[in-house]
Amino acid sequence: MVDTGLVNALAQGVVTGSIIAAGALGLSLVYSIAEVPNFAHGDMLTVGAYLALALNNPGELPFVPNAVAVPFAVAAVGGVVVAGVFGGVYEKAVFSRFRDRDADLITMVIVSLGLALFLRNLVLFLAGSANVTYETVTRVDTNVDVYATGSGVGVELTKRIGGDIATLDAWGYGWLTVLAVLAVAVAAGVAVYRWRSADTGYERVHFVSPRVLAVATTLVVGAAAAAVARGGAVSTANPLYSTRVGVSWKYGAILGVMLATMLCMNYVLKRTKTGRAMRATADDQALARVRGVDIDRVQLVVWVLAAVLAAIAGVLLGWYASNLNPNMGFNLLLPVFAAVIVGGIDSPYGAALGGLMIGLSMDVGAYLLPAEFATYRTAIAFVILVAVLLVKPEGLWGDA
Amino acid sequence: MALADFLVSLLTVVSVYTLFGLGLNIKYGFTGLVDFGHVLYFLTGAYVTVVVTLPAAATSYEGIGGFALPQLLSGVPLGGLLAWFAALAVAMVVAALLSLLVGVPTLRLREDYLAITALGIATILHTVVNDERWLFNGPFGVRDVHQPLTGAFPVSLGSFIVNLAVFGLVSVLVLAYVGYRVGGYVYGVDVRAAALSTVAAVLVVAGLGVATLGGSLVLAGVVVVAVGVAVLARSIRQADGYGQPVALFTALVFAAWYFGTPLVTTGPSGTLASAVWLFDPTAGANGGITYGRFVLLVSAAFVGISYWWCERTVNSPYGRVLRSIREDEDVPEALGKETFRYKVQSMMFGSALAAAAGGLWATHIAFIDPTQFTANITFFAFTAVIIGGAANNRGVVVGTFVFWTLHTGTRFLNDYFPTEYATQLAALRVMLIGALLMVILYYRSEGLLGEQTYDTGVAADGGGHSE
Q1: Considering CB atoms only, which of B111, B131, B434 is closest to A375?
Q2: Which of B36, B117, B431 is closest, CB to CB, to A121?
Q3: Can you give the pTM of this predicted structure?
Q4: Are A122 and A37 contained in the same domain?
Q5: In terms of domains, do A74 and A204 share one?
Q6: A259 and A131 belong to one structural domain
Q7: Which among B64, B79, B273 is positioned nearest to B168, based on CA atoms?
Q8: Three-state DSSP class for A54?
């Protein structure tokens, strides 16, 4: 029997982290461009998740007519779109009015708190406090068991079918092959970094930063090389070390959606006129206005984008945890804020990285700590937040 | 339950939360610190007070303590009361030190960092208190709360008539004083506005009365109430200001509810029982003053002392520094004030007041568990302070009173709906609180009373040095 271990916690952490990253990206946009420390952001996650639920599984909601019930994927897209409209409503009905009155930061904090109370209890009012789930296909779980033995590394794909664990596939690598695969991957990464960063200059904006591209290349080339170099099964009778990683197409789907979302956001921010206007507004609102940027339009776009990102995070969170409740978003507010502050509030990329980091630390920390500390996952995010505030208050990747 | 008991209970809650709000006002109103974790010090105050005075081997309690201070001081005269005061003092010190720990890493940074960090630490410590049974008994809470002098109650001065005369006189005097103050405030309002307000009050009371008869009359009652509110709106327009007509309207509705309802249900004796609210005829053989009323008096005394102390603080040069930090931290910094130190002290002072409120709350409610200390309590206090007017100590009293009267008063709506909708109604209430917070900040960000005026020792026309 193989147990799950650190690697499994890391894999879970990447999934959690990418969900937090989506939330943090939206919050960071609102923070830096609309200049609102938005305490309602967690509840915007909840609203998005429940909007998708209303389309997917309305039977769970007492006050919603039980008319439409569409597949989860369609409902998720529908929920996210409606949440985007809600984002526009928040801006037009609440925040633009306060901005027109030059409300200060503290007022904005309390206004967003009022919105948070309103949204959370609206969900509670309409949906009740019960834990509910999406109506989805039953998930298929596969385990990847990795064994390190004297002769090399063995990999087995196993799956629980009808109570028994069946081995689907097994293969292995000699130690030399492992080293070669690693070397190829790292070399590819370094090469890509050298190539992309060669023309770095003041006026050059990389679509994807060379470092991110290098890491991505390393991962892709490593996976490809591992697939090519795959050898016969290794005897796994007496492993030096063995670990199990639970994977599911659900995790893959969440990561895929997140990756696509990040690339889209990257495109919007770097390659569109609106994105440039947004970044200009974040830098200096007065200057941007003088240069003809329509601030009101930029703010509207920011709030819609933030609501859309929050809704994506909310839907995926509800799907990942197989559980929705009116406090789900508020419970994630602290990790999301921690991610934004750790990343530096002016940097959307920092926020995304910070989200990944917070998610990883929460899951790995929960794995390393004794089982009775499992309820303190959020506390780990908080400790990181305070540590960063004490040491480097401008954030790890911020330049403020 | 007689209306007087309800009023006493409501006023005790209002007193406790006023104390809590005064603490928040020091932090948020006067110094500009957005402490979203204010409830943490309320929790600390309640638990520390209870645990210090808890008997050593309390049944079904598995947390640390109790430290049995009342038993330790049982030889001293009034030992129970002394122990309670000592416990309260310990609680205030512990809360102040805790806020020091929260404040030091965050108070040097921008105000929004304090908001999120304070909210975070309050949430996490709430989880700790809720999950760790070895600490304060976890979700099971603490029974056996020490209530000082509880054995001495109900206090009776002799025969029924003597009790009625003495306590009744005090009660009537208090009511008369309140009436006098309200009358003095309303006096001189436009006559037509006063008439409209009176009509509005009559309509609202009549509408509510009709609605309680049930059936299709509920709808008729609601319509009449709506007409009453419309008339009130006219009255406000007529009077050119909302203060006096609303005060008149509220006083009339209160009088109709408090004195009129018992007249209808139990007759003149009911009205008399309402008027002598401090006297409980059912307590003991000859009637007397109950423990609940004593706790109200103690809480009111605490509010009085704290109010006086807060006023002293904000009117002193020290208070001026706090306000200048709120307005622009660079200015006092440039004048050589160590603003960080002032901010930390403001945090500690406000937290100590919150801890005192927590100790009183535990004494009032006699049973504490973590569900009483959720983050919503902080948000309610923010709403109350903003309703009354931030940076106004009197505003805290008014705002807390208005807030908790509305919050408690709307509970009667629960009777009209099936019990399975209780969660829905509670959610609706908090939803409206959130909306109210945004509406007040937009339309009247200075609250009902606005920022208070300060006694700066300089005349208002004294060469432009006025505030």
Answers
A1: B131
A2: B431
A3: 0.89
A4: yes
A5: no
A6: yes
A7: B273
A8: helix
